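It is worth pausing here to work through a concrete case rather than discussing structure prediction in the abstract. The textbook approach is simple: state the sequence, then state the predicted structure, then interpret. We follow exactly that order.
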Amino acid sequence: MNAEHVVNKILSEAKQQAETIGQEAAEKRDQHNRQLEQELSSYRQETQRLADEAAEDRRSRMLAAARMQNARALLAAKTEILDEVFKKAEDRIVGLPDEPYKALISRLMVQAVETGDEEVIVGKDERRITADLIKQVNRQLGTGFKGNLRLAETRASIKGGFILSRGRVQMNASVEVLIDQVRETMESELAATLFA
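Step two, the predicted structure:
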């Protein structure tokens, strides 16, 4: 064997080894790339899942906040309507013609009297509850009452009705207070009727 043939054989074997090493490296590179692509795909899926969860969570929170805001607005609107209903009731009582108003006040006064010697305090603008009306109420009081109700010189900041005063004890029968009492007992029933 001559030297040239030996060199060619060595070169041929080296070339084969280089090709084998190249193929193995290419296979490892391809395998590594496939593994990286799988991991990258897995990361993309996980990122998308987390983004979807975050979006759903945010959407849920936004919906809950919107529902809460709508509920508050609805409650405020219902309260405003009820306020208006009771305000109109108050205005209607104060705006009653003289005779029905006086009859109502007389009935309320007879029911509210405890001893019959109270002072009757009326509103600053009250013109229908007079000393004559109070005399009539004194006559209506039954036995057990003194019948000495009298109109107070002082006036109160009330729209209508009256306040009975005896010493430090006062019984407020103003239209505002009476409507508030009615509201406490009827508000839920009225709300159910109006907003059902």
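Step three, interpretation. The longest strand covers residues 150-156. The chain has a mean pLDDT of 87.
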